[in-house]
Design goal:
CATH architecture of one domain: 3-Layer(aba) Sandwich
Strand order of the largest sheet: 19-16-18-17-21-22-20
CATH topology of one domain: Vanillyl-alcohol Oxidase, Chain A, domain 3
Strand content: 15-25%
Pfam families: FAD_binding_4
Radius of gyration: 23 Å
Keywords: FAD, Flavoprotein, Oxidoreductase
Largest sheet: 7 strands, antiparallel
Family: Belongs to the oxygen-dependent FAD-linked oxidoreductase family.
Number of helices: 16
Cofactor: FAD
Number of strands: 22
Structural class: alpha+beta
GO molecular function, one term: oxidoreductase activity
Helix content: 25-40%
Length: about 525
Amino acid sequence: RCVSFHSELAISPLSLPHSFVCFGAFRALRSMLLYFSVALLAGAALAAPSLRCRNETAAWPTDIQGLVLDEASPEWENLTARWSTYSAPTFNELFLPHTIEDISLALGYLSAIDKPFLAQSGGHGYAPSLHVIQNATLINMINFGYINVNDDGTATVGSGSRFRDVVAAVGGAGREFTVGNCPCVGAVGATIGGGLGRLQGLHGLSSDALLSARVVLWNGTIAEVSADSHSDLFWGIRGAGQNFGIIAEAVFQTYPATNGGLQYSADLLIPFENLGAVVDITNDLLNEGLAPALALLFVISYNAEIGQPTVVMNIVYAGPEAEGQAVAELFRPYAVQFQAMMTPWTELANTALFGGFNFPCETAGPIDQYHVLARNIHAETLQEQVQHYAEFMAATPGAAGSSIMIEAFAQQAVQAHSDDFSAFPHRQNFHTALVWAMTWSDDSVGPDADAFAKEWRDRFSESDISGYENMHVYQNYANDDEPLSALYGVDTWRQERLTALKDAYDPHGHFDGYHPVPKSAPDWS
């Protein structure tokens, strides 16, 4: 017999084979017991749900029906575009909320009928795990693209905002905080995965600056989350936030702009034969500890015209010009092209890397990315790898555009927080990030490109090369084959805490599309 109650809050079954499922008395009793265990863990964040049958033909709530578009809409292609088409989710309807109450109604409805959904701000999530989301509802957060810099120096950021919008607003007010390098990435989405960036040596991670958030849970409950309200969830959303709900709005601490908002930026074109010397200098700086204001970035690509790999280096120093120049002069003798300037923080994305930092903003096309964290850059292995990369690219023109990136950012303000400050697990292991970003125009070379990147990720993960005992992966850069302990931490207490949060706030796995936290201890391995 089908049991159905009209309510915005619902528990719904997952992964059931039929479009309409009826429940007997035993199943209803089991769901009621499940609710009581969830309520004990999550407290007031979860209101008592009612049980509903899965019914994919049920109509959207009247109040938000007009916000739903289908594939016939002229806006469909633009509003569903993603950075990467590789192993991507698919959608058959689009929801455009205007308010957090709209999101609440939508999640109550979608979870009740067991319809998969995914919220999107920047659309840069590329993890192949997203492929489990098929024929879903895309919740596009474009109408939440607002930023307000408040009188107390905090910034209220809607989850539809990109980093470029945040930098413009916050920098325009004479303030700053850590943001990611790519200007078109969704600011809140990147933050809840940790939020690395050039200013982290001064101000910590983006998630370290998070003061509060408005989170919509699977059943439509709106949770006001901070250190004083749902503090357990506040811990979890700073490093694993995509697992628990949709964050509609976040409030960040900002800081007075360093050096009046002006930063020294130098770009260097380095020939392959000088890569070893440049890496040695970089490792010397890493071993000493990068100055808090210093950030280094390498992009290695392949120039088919000359048949050689090219190395572009960007040095940013958020401080006086003379101090930035002193660092740049260490590398300048090895460059064949050099460009330096003092630039406002608000313009850095338009000038860094010889003005090419907006290239990752282009959408459409496959991006298959692997990554690992390392204590420093193993020079011998990197030179060997770049040589193999050049050979692979020469033999595989269909993979043109594939590249290698290395980020090295300062650690002082990141390590100033204790390891249990948030769910972010890499405070002592966040010195350099190595990234292999593979793309292709010919699908037949995709498997070879994937195998190449995976092989070298595995090599750099070896403890004698990474410098770390365990594998560490920044989850915003992760693929889908890593052990989840590499993304979320190897400590048992951390895994148990995350699993308890997942069971409490997402008991049915509605937010399992992007590196889902395991629901039981054995699944961590």
